[in-house]
Amino acid sequence: MKNSALLATGLAVSAPLLAKSESVNSKSPDFPGIIFTQKEQGRWEGKAGSHVPVVTVKGNMLTMQTFHPMTEEHYIVRHTVVDKNGKLLGAKTFHPTDVRAISTIELPNGFHGKLYATSFCNKHDFWLKEFSV
Fold first, then answer.
1. HEC string for the chain
2. For the stretch 19-46, what's the b/e string if a residue is b when 16 or more beta carbons lie within 10 angstroms of its beta carbon?
3. What span, in angstroms and rounded, lies between the C-alpha atoms of 49 and 68?
4. 93 near 78, Cβ under 8 Å?
5. pLDDT digit string (tens) for 74-84?
6. How far apart are CA 63 and CA 53, in angstroms?
7. What HEC string does 40-75 produce?
8. How far apart (Å, rounded) are the C-alpha atoms in residues 113 and 60?
9. Which pTM was predicted?
10. CA-CA distance, 43 to 40, in Å (whole number)?
């Protein structure tokens, strides 16, 4: 419960910041090593493949998966999807006992624009995928 509250607070603080940045990376002065991406892996070089969420969109259904082991010691804690204005469109909290980190959200009908998918690992921090629908 405490971790979920902390994560929710982090999302509330970070989502508007994400929306203001045209280029989000861990070397940016706005995000000094706290947000990691495929391109900017920072201190977690080599971890992107199992931490950056993979997103597919079919119609108005968005599916996000992080190909990461789920164990008591090391697991994906949460997925979120926010729009370019920082509005939360969907989120799912995971537990170490979940078999895999996969979530599905329904986008607003006719939605087009930039989105940010996030995956938070209990050991390797906050990972971001920026994409457009």
1. CHHHHHHHHHHHHHHHHHHHCCCCCCCCCCCCCCEECCCCCHHHCCCHHHCCCEEEEECCEEEEEECCCCCCCCCEEEEEEEECCCCEEEEEECCCCCCCEEEEEECCCCCCCEEEEEEEECCCEEEEEEEEC
2. beeeebbbeeeebeeebbbeebbbebee
3. 9
4. yes
5. 999 999 999 99
6. 10
7. CCHHHCCCHHHCCCEEEEECCEEEEEECCCCCCCCC
8. 13
9. 0.76
10. 9
Give me the pLDDT at residue 19, please.
38
Q: The tokens 């969907």 sit on which residue? A: 90
* Residue 111, both tokens: 């939605």
